Amino acid sequence: MGGLQKKKYERGSATNYISRNKARKKLRLSLADFRRLCILKGIYPHEPKHKKKVNKGSTAPRTFYLLKDIRFLLHEPIVGKFREYKIFVRKLKKAYGKAEWSGVERLRENKPAYKLDHIIKERYPTFIDALRDVDDALSMCFLFSTFARSGKCHVQVIQLCRRLSVEWMNYIITSQSLRKVFLTIKGIYYQADVLGQTITWIVPYQFTHDHPTDVDYRVMATFTEFYTTLLGFVNFRLYQTLNLVYPPKLDGQGEFSFKSECEEDYALESESYSEKLSALSASLVRTVPSVDEEEVELDHFPVEGEDLEKMEAREKIELELNKQKKLFEGLKFFLNREVPRESLAFVIRCLGGQVSWDKSLCIGSTYDETDETITHHIVDRPSIDKQYINRYYIQPQWVYDCVNGKILLPVEDYFLGVTLPPHLSPFVEESEGDYVPPEKLKLMALQRGEKPQAAAAEEEEEDEEEEEEEDDEEEDDQSEGEDEAEDEENLAEMEAKRAQGKSLSVKVTPGKAKPENRMRAYQEEKAEEKRLAIMMMKKREKYLYDKIMFGKKRNVREANKLAAKRKAHDEAGKADKKKKKKKC
Amino acid sequence: MAAARRHKRMAASQPGFLPLKSNLDGDSFNKKLRKRVNKNKKKNWNKFSDIQDVEEFLDDVRLQERATGGLISERTDDSLFFVDIGEKDEKDKDTQPQTTEKGKRSKPLRIDLILQSNSHIPAPKNVLAFQQPNAKKQRRTLERVAKSAAKGILPRREKLLQLRRAAAASGVSAKERPEAKNNPNRAFYDLWCAGTPETADPYYLEQTKKKLVKRPDRLNEKPSVLPAIEVIAPGGSYNPDFFSHQDLLREAHEVEVKKIKVEEKLARRLAVKEDVATAESTFKEQVEGLIEEEEIEPEDPEVDTEDTVIGPTATQEKKTEKQRKKEKAERIKELQRKAERRVIDKRQQLFQLRSISANLKKQEQRTKMRQAQRKAKQEAQKSMPRRLGRLKFQTPELDVQLSGELASSLRSLKPEGSILKDRFLSLQKRNIIEPRERAKVKRKYKAKYSEKRAFREIQ
């Protein structure tokens, strides 16, 4: 019996984990290098379940890694490069200290460098894997590309980030895959649908940087180093899928027209070219000359029941998508100089619109303000001196709301100097019974194709009257969406008239089965079934059911309360307005 | 020294040796009286042996060598003497005018002539200067190279040189310098294209480091289920809906209230109690024992005198045989009774079946509920930031703009918060990096501030 006494901390979790310092020593790296390596290889610290055991009885808070992870790191070739780099720095320091300038030069020429390609391939074995993880990469690249070249990070990194983000935007434009935009107090959130993957990223507003001090720039720079490599490869592949030339090249005609304009403003040829690319106003060269994209129709399979419903739903979504892609087709936009140019140009071009701006604002403008064919002029100031009669002067929010609503919204709410309707988040999906803001309800009604005027007229009678005169003028000009709606209305009216005429001429009407009755019967039957089902429930299930229903009802009640509150708030606001008007 | 002496003797013994100096005689040996000295010490050898003659002889030898390039006695007669015919003058005359014709320039300066060495003995060579270190090794390597060259194998350096030359001729730089990762113009390629599959043995490839070790699948799991980009609540819109904005504000408000509560609690705990020491109370405290002592003192001696034993005494009387037997019987009886009771209880359980089953059911239900709870907790844990280091993850403050701060248009919008910080915290929140704070600068010595006199004067 007996045998050797088991020692503590020699088996189990104590041997599965390794503390950071030990791992660092095992790899023979400095802490900074170790951190860098972990970030690049995607090795994350772990929180062990029994900390005290792992910590060999001590309760000091430590960072732990899995021992197997660290063993895996031992095989990484980059570790050797890190050590080489350390030696390089030491030699360089020495050469500087001894003022051996030729030695310094020689060392600099042979500076060790490493590549991350194999790590990307290892971490993302397939392209789709990489695409799924591109959210972070995009946000980081867009963020770094807006940094001032102030020495917080290498200028080259900023340039690379800028290049990659511009490439990405160009891809989104060409593939028309932008779905949602949300302007927030932080930055602009975009959502795109790329090869079936929903990708969200955030772009900061321009010139907003005060560099926070409590952020570790070295860590962020390491992440950026990894993400730029990832994004580069992803971009390459994405361009390939669209048969675009990589690195992106501008289409021939566009390029020609640019050359004449403001070549002298940019010293370097390469610089001016990248600027033109980032202007986002011209399309890109394809390797295979683009054929006009035919409508891809969904395959139809004979299906029944639920599948059919799903199919229909899918078709509907597809249709909606196609509509959204071509929302701005045929529209010509002009951006005034105070609006965020890049974001607007990006969004407008994504939906197939044409866009231009003042020549002095940025390189790459395609037409002047005086162009008669411009349909929308985007302005963000209370008033403008010189107005053209045949275009709408609207505020930038209209563009974003159109993207989110997937329809061309009525422009009246977005005219110059008008108080804008709230910019709703497209990322919220209300479930049944939640409070839905009235603006969203209006939008949903519009999407269904109902006429907005009826609802709007009731709400703001007096305010509308003043604006109506203007509206009429504008409406005459044209807006395609509204025209269609109007046509429909006319048709309905004509039909009604016809029906009336018929009823006058024929006195005896044949009896007809009422379809409503059948519907009702069906509904009743369903309700009855439900009631019976509830009756048949087991006690416990019944209890659960009651609970769920109660929760739903409570939600509805709360939503109603909020809606009532809102109404009261609106009325109070109106009353205030009226008072003010009277005073005036 | 010994060699020199031998030399001298040899020379002296030779019949044809002519000393240059005439005063070198054998008589000088006998002039001084020899002192008897022990010559068993080296020091005495030098001190008391007369080597004058040897020195002189050697000097003479050196002189001869210097002046003529060898011992005169060893010279042949022809080299010492010549037959004067008288024709030589003419030849000299023929040659001399040429030199004079060339001018004074060709005539060496006198100073140079003085400095010129007139010795006929060549200067001794510095042997070390001509010695090559590692000569043997080098010779061998050379031999080896020559041998391999004969076979047609070039040394590595030569090969590289040739390669470089060939590359330069074809216009491609031979050595591809590793490109910096952050080069803004770097090229990308299709990383995920299906290349030719490796045919070699994977074990061989792994061992020779041509193939990387397979990444374990465990590493491809994300440490948190949170999305990379968390979209701000609808109230964060630049032009929000009134109620969603209020919602966001309320949320921020609640966070703030909680924080204040914590602070207040801390302040309450740390607050100084009401009864602050006054002069009177301190005096009382100081005097406390002194006044009462007098009253107690008389009691104390009594206590001391009362010789009481505290605690139980160890002595216990022994049990008698009878007692012990009785106790044993009692014990056995007790055990029997208990066993009987158990049997009865078991039988009784038959009638309690319903309640037992109810109990069981209840227990089961409880375990199920606990399982569900545990599972829910685990699920929730997946999206929670873990404790990964010294610091805990602190949820950042919500970025909100008050109703008054909201911009009326996109142009006048003032962005709130920093996206860089957001990203950094998001990485921490998703357990990708451990929470960190900026390292504080630690001073070894406390900074000392002093006002300069000039500054003081102004004030």
From TrEMBL, chain A:
<keyword id="KW-0690">Ribosome biogenesis</keyword>
<dbReference type="Pfam" id="PF16589">
    <property type="entry name" value="BRCT_2"/>
</dbReference>
<feature type="compositionally biased region" description="Basic and acidic residues">
    <location>
        <begin position="513"/>
        <end position="526"/>
    </location>
</feature>
<dbReference type="InterPro" id="IPR036420">
    <property type="entry name" value="BRCT_dom_sf"/>
</dbReference>
<keyword id="KW-0539">Nucleus</keyword>
<comment type="similarity">
    <text>Belongs to the pescadillo family.</text>
</comment>
<keyword id="KW-0698">rRNA processing</keyword>
<feature type="region of interest" description="Disordered">
    <location>
        <begin position="561"/>
        <end position="584"/>
    </location>
</feature>
<comment type="function">
    <text>Component of the PeBoW complex, which is required for maturation of 28S and 5.8S ribosomal RNAs and formation of the 60S ribosome.</text>
</comment>
<protein>
    <recommendedName>
        <fullName>Pescadillo homolog</fullName>
    </recommendedName>
</protein>
<feature type="region of interest" description="Disordered">
    <location>
        <begin position="448"/>
        <end position="526"/>
    </location>
</feature>
<dbReference type="InterPro" id="IPR010613">
    <property type="entry name" value="PES"/>
</dbReference>
<feature type="compositionally biased region" description="Acidic residues">
    <location>
        <begin position="457"/>
        <end position="492"/>
    </location>
</feature>
<dbReference type="Pfam" id="PF06732">
    <property type="entry name" value="Pescadillo_N"/>
</dbReference>
<comment type="subunit">
    <text>Component of the PeBoW complex, composed of BOP1, PES1 and WDR12. Within the PeBoW complex BOP1 interacts directly with PES1 and WDR12. The PeBoW complex also associates with the 66S pre-ribosome.</text>
</comment>
<feature type="domain" description="BRCT">
    <location>
        <begin position="323"/>
        <end position="416"/>
    </location>
</feature>
<dbReference type="InterPro" id="IPR001357">
    <property type="entry name" value="BRCT_dom"/>
</dbReference>
From TrEMBL, chain B:
<feature type="region of interest" description="Disordered">
    <location>
        <begin position="1"/>
        <end position="24"/>
    </location>
</feature>
<feature type="region of interest" description="Disordered">
    <location>
        <begin position="292"/>
        <end position="338"/>
    </location>
</feature>
<feature type="compositionally biased region" description="Acidic residues">
    <location>
        <begin position="292"/>
        <end position="307"/>
    </location>
</feature>
<dbReference type="GO" id="GO:0000027">
    <property type="term" value="P:ribosomal large subunit assembly"/>
</dbReference>
<comment type="function">
    <text>May play a role in ribosome biogenesis.</text>
</comment>
<feature type="compositionally biased region" description="Basic and acidic residues">
    <location>
        <begin position="86"/>
        <end position="95"/>
    </location>
</feature>
<keyword id="KW-0690">Ribosome biogenesis</keyword>
<keyword id="KW-0539">Nucleus</keyword>
<feature type="region of interest" description="Disordered">
    <location>
        <begin position="86"/>
        <end position="106"/>
    </location>
</feature>
<feature type="compositionally biased region" description="Basic and acidic residues">
    <location>
        <begin position="327"/>
        <end position="338"/>
    </location>
</feature>
<dbReference type="GO" id="GO:0006364">
    <property type="term" value="P:rRNA processing"/>
</dbReference>
<dbReference type="Pfam" id="PF07767">
    <property type="entry name" value="Nop53"/>
</dbReference>
<protein>
    <recommendedName>
        <fullName>Ribosome biogenesis protein NOP53</fullName>
    </recommendedName>
</protein>
<feature type="compositionally biased region" description="Basic residues">
    <location>
        <begin position="1"/>
        <end position="10"/>
    </location>
</feature>
<dbReference type="GO" id="GO:0005654">
    <property type="term" value="C:nucleoplasm"/>
</dbReference>
<comment type="similarity">
    <text>Belongs to the NOP53 family.</text>
</comment>
<feature type="region of interest" description="Disordered">
    <location>
        <begin position="361"/>
        <end position="390"/>
    </location>
</feature>
<dbReference type="GO" id="GO:0008097">
    <property type="term" value="F:5S rRNA binding"/>
</dbReference>
<dbReference type="GO" id="GO:0005730">
    <property type="term" value="C:nucleolus"/>
</dbReference>
<dbReference type="InterPro" id="IPR011687">
    <property type="entry name" value="Nop53/GLTSCR2"/>
</dbReference>
